[in-house]
Amino acid sequence: MASIELRNITKRFGDIIAVNNLSLEIQDGEFLVFLGPSGCGKTTTLRLIAGLEHPEVGDILIDGVRTNHLSPADRDIAFVFQFYALYPHLTVFDNLAFPLKAVRIDQSEISGLVQEVARLLQIDRLLDRKPSHLSGGEMQRVALGRAMVRRPKAFLMDEPMANLDAKLRVDMRSELKRLQYELGTTTVFVTHDQVEAMSMADRIAVMHRGVLEQVATPHEVYNKPQSMFVAGFMGSPSMNLLHGCVQSDGGKTLLRLDHTNVSWELSDEQVSNLGSGHREHALVFGIRPEHIRISKEPVNGGIKAAVHLVESIGSVNIIDIFLGEDPETTNLITLRVRTHPSFQVESGQFIYLEFDEKHIHFFDSKTERII
User: Fold this and answer.
1) What does the CA dihedral 269, 274, 278, 279 come to, rounded to 10 degrees?
2) Which residues pair with residue 154 across a beta bridge?
3) Taking residues 113-124, what's their average pLDDT?
């Protein structure tokens, strides 16, 4: 087990900054997930930790020891690749044993270590097979076993479940989390799948264009996003983000949404949280679909609007509410609301909206950071 620290890491490929001044501490025994879209720098960061890439600026420390000069083999790190990278001409047993032979473990110990890992991963019945006779899930377990067998300081995993079908991915998520809990090994996992990140991570590091946007627990990343990117990336559907302006009107402080007739009075607490610097200024209003209450009957303080589209997806309905239209781009301005499937409305029907004040977010429209 090991702690891993990244200090002001920068990595470029030509004119492209893949990782931009990234600093992060990964605790001993932690399951940390790098999350973000393709090209955000998450895999490059993983390869930097492994020693497969080298930073132009900054230091990488493993257990407090600077490792920039160390080769991948000398870092005692196990890497699990997206495409398994098994040796097709070797049996499962020999694939598992290969890392032990490479570091010259005594032959008498190898069999016991391989059998132990095979039992843990429930692949002991497959030891005589070759990869061509394994399913995708079985190959994934062998790849994990090959990383586990020599008991490294940390596991680095680059989208290891990307090639599995949906049901198998669900099974492997719980299995991998269970194994990591039992082994207690520091694990750094890369994915673009937010469900994987939310269900497995102790902490999530959200990246965008090489920048670490936020690192926090899954609960904090979802409920307290620190930037518009995190707010929009997390959740399905994602957070509603609408441009607006805070204005004073007859002793009241109102939030008006751009290109709509929608406005409402902010509470004293919300006004206080905004601070004087953001009053009478443009900002971005954010709220998740599940934090909007919707009713067919008029409610005190409710906002009247028309239903634009209804998507029924079984366990919930996703309803798009029309608020207005941007005259410059002709883009519709809508809110997405999540409701119980028993709530039935049709396109064009008027409804009434209320926002859960505890779950409203305000972002600076210039910096795109939370206010």
Assistant:
1) 0
2) 77, 186
3) 88
Q: Which residues pair with 321 in a beta bridge?
A: 307, 335
- Written as one letter, the residue type at 320 is D
Per the CB < 8 A criterion, the answer to whether 259 and 325 are in contact is yes
Q: Which pLDDT score, from 0 to 100, does residue 277 have?
A: 66
Tokens 């509410």 -> residue:
321
* Inter-CA distances, 191 with 37, 40, 116, 200, Å: 8, 11, 28, 11
> Rounded CA gap, 205 and 19, in Å?
13
DSSP tag of 110: H
Q: Is the pLDDT reported for residue 44 higher than 90?
A: yes
Nearest Cα to Cα of residue 117 among 88, 156, 78, 81 = 78
DSSP state string for 70-100 = S-GGGTTEEEE-TT----TTS-HHHHHHHHH
Residue 369 carries which DSSP code? B
- For helices 166-183 and 136-148, give the axis angle rounded to 10 degrees: 20
Task: Judge if pTM exceeds 0.85.
Answer: yes
Cβ burial 76-107 (10 Å sphere, 16+ → b, else e): bbbbbeeebebeeeebbbebbbbbbeeeeeee
Beta carbons of 27 and 187 less than 8 angstroms apart: no
107 band by pLDDT with thresholds 50, 70 and 90: confident
The residue type of 187 is T
Opening angle at CA 115, ends 111 and 118, nearest 5: 140
Angle, helices 107-121 vs 92-102, to 10°: value is 130
- 119-165 residue pLDDT tens: 888 899 999 999 999 988 888 889 888 888 888 899 999 998 887 77
Is residue 286 very low, low, confident or very high in pLDDT (cuts 50, 70, 90)? very high
